[in-house]
Specification:
Largest sheet of chain B: 4 strands, antiparallel
Helix content of chain B: 55-70%
Largest sheet of chain A: 6 strands, mixed
Order of helices and strands of chain A: EEEHEHEHHHEHEHEEHHHH
Distance between the termini of chain A: 16 Å
Shape of chain B: elongated
Largest interface: A-B, 30 and 28 residues
Structural class of chain B: alpha+beta
Number of domains of chain A: 1
Strand content of chain B: 15-25%
Strand order of the largest sheet of chain B: 1-11-4-8
CATH architecture of chain A: 3-Layer(aba) Sandwich
Number of strands of chain B: 11
Radius of gyration of chain B: 25 Å
Order of helices and strands of chain B: HHHHHHEEEHEEEEEEEEHHHHHH
Structural class of chain A: alpha/beta
Distance between the termini of chain B: 31 Å
Shape of chain A: globular
Strand content of chain A: 15-25%
Oligomer: heterodimer
């Protein structure tokens, strides 16, 4: 059964100057719905209104007009917040805390008891590959490592709705792939994911539906399949065949279609190639100071509700 | 509650790791150890005790007040500037819990620093008044007059100013049921302040008399004086009668101010408890200043919040002048100073250091009043106001001044 998790109706945000005169309309009369279990992407260039929309969903900004509900409630509702995990565009962590302290602190804000908090913190640190750096201050971390801690804090409460603002920013390709796998894994468990990004490949890889924003307005919205499929063109995938058989297939098709056809070998994308090389290199890895690439997802995030 | 404690713990951790606590503790140590050495008293042990209890504790209170205001202003405003508040505000945390957490964190730091500095000052006091350092008579005087807690029973007056001409006398009556319960031999002390109509007179003479006791005194006008009374006769109604005679050598009228009538002091408790009560009142004042800082930092950016807080400190320091100006002849000025006086009401209090340094009791009632008004009522009002403004504003907006 469909359950609407986020509903935006005629949502508008106008920023005003000191004298309350309208300065800029960052989000202009947008409407959308996100259903339970969906991975929804907000796409758009810088300044298109993605982050402003996310902040209104989170209650960090108030709409100038229109209405937004999350789990059927106002975004400021404390019970609503209990079910949300948020990774901001910049990690916004306390520099002087270690990853372990950071996760314990945010866990306490969710009223998690000490035992389950400790269990989750251990699993999350293993998942983000920072178990070995659990007692180093976050201020000493690279942007990518801090980003991983930011992601872990967003998952400490096993949220039903995960909001990720530019989740792969600052991450290496392996980290990007891990985050994308994690997002898919979470969606399989019925979690709803809303992510904003200007990295089109990331969005295409994981999102069920996307909305493309430009100057605060939604210019296109729909499933990836609907938006990207070219209804008037076709593509065949053939198994490995001898060259003469290929030539025969091509000749037959040319005869039927009546014009020249394009034929080429399929390519894996650069991301998959890179990850394969890194995985091979990991075989001889020694001591590391950065994040350790892992594929493990925290146990509590893989258990069904 | 766990959320509030978590935020309070974070505030403490932040202060410790940013080395604020270390610098402050160092400053407190320097202040407590060096100030009594650099300030020149009158060379007596009494003078040293006065410096230690009045100036050192006063300077400590001022230093902690400044640090508390500054740290309070930074507590929320730096989280807003660094956007860490975004991650807290999207968690199931109410704005009032953020405010309380930051405030309690500051109170915990203040409690530790005040207790440590208070213990150090007490240790220095005891070391300098140890038996080996003083002759027994001086030590007995100090123990009975300074390192004690004495309550005051003021004389019954009609509230009018009156003068006593040369050779004339005036009877005072002091009545308190407690007089009848005092053990025979318990020393009583008379505390009085008398002005002279001749402002050039530096020393004046007066005679105090009661049943079985008479003493000629020479004293400086317009300053508080203390006179030990051997256990005097107390009437069956618990009343003590005392006569003052103007015995100055030349014609001079001595004036009693009804605001400061003579009072009989009697021992009502230990110095240690008095000292602890005094520290508690200072702590309540710090709690209120922490509330001012956290509230200002919740509404304004750090520079504006700091400016507001410094303004509050200056106003507190000028509260005597402001109260005096409420009697201004200019109606507009009167109105303005009445308003300022009202704003400063929460910060106004009887300075607990003055009675502590003169061996007078700081009452539990004064402590209770400080807790109720400063730490609960006025801090609560500040929390309520600033949380309302905080909720009204946008955490991720750029509209904070």
């Amino acid at each position: 059964m469909n359950e609407t998790i986020i509903q935006a109706e005629a949502l508008t945000k106008t920023f005003r100057d000191f004298w309350m005169r309208p300065k800029i309309t960052a989000v202009d009369n947008i409407r959308f719905e996100i259903q339970r279990g969906e991975i929804f992407g907000l796409l758009g260039p810088n300044g298109s209104g993605k982050s402003t929309t996310l902040k209104m969903i989170l209650g960090l900004l108030h709409p100038s007009a229109g209405r937004i509900t999350v789990f059927g409630q106002a975004p400021q509702d404390v019970k609503t917040k209990q079910r949300i995990g948020y990774l901001p565009e910049e990690s916004c962590l306390y520099d002087y805390l270690t990853p372990e302290e950071t996760l314990h602190f945010y866990g306490r804000l969710f009223d998690l008891d000490a035992a389950s908090r400790t269990e989750r913190v251990d699993q999350l640190l293993d998942m983000i590959g920072l178990g070995h750096a659990r007692r180093r201050p976050v201020g000493e971390f690279s942007k990518g490592m801090a980003r991983r801690v930011g992601l872990a804090q967003a998952l400490i409460n096993d949220p039903d709705l995960i909001i990720l603002d530019e989740p792969t920013a600052g991450l290496d390709p392996v980290g990007c792939r891990q985050i994308k796998d994690l997002i898919l894994n979470l969606a399989q468990r019925g979690k709803t994911v809303l992510l904003s990004s200007h990295l089109l490949a990331d969005v295409e890889d994981v999102c069920d539906r996307v909305a493309i924003l430009y100057s605060g307005s939604i210019r296109a919205m729909g499933s990836i399949h609907e938006l990207l499929e070219e209804q008037t063109r076709y593509q065949f995938d053939l198994p490995e065949l001898p060259p003469e058989r290929i030539q025969a297939v091509l000749s037959s098709l040319k005869e039927l279609v009546g014009e020249d056809l394009d034929i080429r070998h399929p390519r894996i994308n650069l991301e998959r190639f890179f990850i394969r090389i890194v995985e091979e290199a990991q075989q001889d890895s020694a001591t590391r100071s950065g994040a350790v690439p892992v594929t493990k997802v925290a146990d509590y995030l893989t258990q069904s509700d | 509650m766990d959320r509030i404690i978590a935020i309070a713990g974070l505030a403490v951790r932040s202060a410790i790791r940013s080395r604020v606590v270390a610098v402050l503790a160092g400053s407190v140590l320097v202040l407590v150890v060096l100030l009594p050495l650099t300030l020149k008293g009158d060379g007596t042990v009494e003078g040293y005790i006065h410096i230690l209890l009045s100036y050192t504790l006063g300077a400590l209170s001022f230093l902690l007040s400044l640090a508390t205001l500054w740290a309070g202003c930074a507590a929320v405003s730096t989280d807003v500037r660094g956007r860490q508040i975004h991650l807290i505000a999207v968690k199931p945390v109410r704005p009032v819990e953020i405010w309380l957490g930051k405030w309690l964190g500051l109170l915990a730091l203040n409690a530790v620093l005040l207790a440590a500095a208070g213990t150090l000052i007490y240790g220095m006091l005891r070391w300098n008044t140890r038996p080996a350092a003083l002759d027994p008579a001086d030590r007995a005087t100090i123990q009975s007059q300074l390192l004690t807690a004495r309550k005051a029973v003021p004389a019954i007056t009609d509230g009018k100013v009156f003068g006593i001409t040369s050779g004339a006398s005036r009877h005072w009556k002091f009545q308190a049921p407690v007089f009848q319960t005092l053990e025979t031999g318990t020393p009583l002390f008379l505390r009085y302040r008398i002005s002279a109509t001749d402002i050039t007179a530096l020393r004046v003479k007066g005679r105090w008399r009661t049943a079985g006791f008479e003493a000629e005194t020479v004293f400086m006008p317009n300053t508080f004086q203390t006179l030990e009374l051997p256990f005097p006769g107390i009437g069956k109604d618990g009343a003590l009668d005392l006569e003052f005679i103007n015995s100055h050598d030349r014609p001079l009228t001595l004036v009693f101010d009804p605001q400061h009538p003579p009072a009989i002091l009697y021992r009502s408790g230990s110095f240690e408890m008095n000292y602890a009560r005094c520290l508690l009142i200072i702590f309540c004042q710090l709690a209120l200043l922490a509330a001012v800082g956290v509230s200002a930092g919740s509404v304004f950016t750090m520079p504006v919040a700091a400016f507001v807080s410094v303004w509050v400190l200056i106003m507190i320091a000028s509260s005597g002048f402001i109260e005096h100006m409420t009697a201004s002849e200019n109606a507009l000025a009167r109105l303005w100073f009445h308003f300022l006086n009202l704003v400063l009401l929460p910060f106004r209090n009887e300075n607990p250091l003055e009675p502590l340094a003169t061996g007078r009791a700081v009452s539990w009632a004064a402590v209770g009043l400080a807790v109720l008004l400063k730490a609960v009522l006025f801090s609560g009002l500040l929390a309520w106001g600033s949380v309302a403004l905080f909720k009204r504003g946008e955490i991720a907006g750029g509209g904070r001044s």
